[in-house]
Design brief:
seven-stranded parallel β-sheet; oxidoreductase; 278 residues; 7 strands; 52% helix; NAD(P)-bd_dom_sf; oxidoreductase activity; alpha/beta; Rossmann fold; SDR_fam
Length: 278
Amino acid sequence: MTEPRSVLITGCSSGIGRHCAFGLQARGWRVFASARRQADVDELRAEGLSETLLLDVRDDASIQAAFDTLLERTGGRLDAVFNNAGYGQPGAVEDLPREALREQFETNLFGAQAVLRAALPVMRRQGHGRIAQHSSVLGFIALPWRGAYNASKYALEGLTDTLRHELRGSGVTVSLIQTGPVRSRFRANGELAFRRWIDAGASVHREAYEAVAARLAGSGEAPFTLGPEAVLAKLVHALEHPRPKARYHVTVPTHLFKALKRLLPTHTLDRLVRAAGG
């Protein structure tokens, strides 16, 4: 009997990570669903995920402990990683304290790279592996008042493009999944980060922040919002297709801005971006 393929997914407490964990398990994958809080890990297991891990991507010791457990259970094998953990820190660039920017990068970039450093020796040794990195339309288009998140995703894209070159011939592939608006706790988590770090009343951007705060607290959906199943479909292709793509675009805005960035002069594109994201 063929052993099921194993995949580690980070950031499974809700939204995209949680949906993809259940979706891949339904497809026969041995899913190691991870979250940084024990209560979330326990809930995932109670809801039917057979393998769960406590893993905080900001903590090297937590990553190592999770990998020790995973590799012990699989006999040293790991077929795929979906680096999904992340959040968006709102705020104008000039209002971001150094620590807010550092925390954004710790999760969205440094954490993803630390997980890869643990996974790649295993994949190189076995001669195969699939890596999917959760990026964003904001990994190639910069919207105002999202500087920390823009920067972290631009950096993730650069790191991943470099890694693709360095993995050539290893049997390990790496793909970026660039999402636009997808139903998740992204806005709720962003609101918490905004209120923690940004003194809106003292900022020259305070009027703009009123719209930012309303968007983060609102219950309505952005135009063209899709469910997390749209991400799962791209993830399945990245992990299962014989020739995975380097980039997968999810939602209309991602496809649209990818085309517009190629076609339009910078000043014209800037006007459209401000209209869309102001």
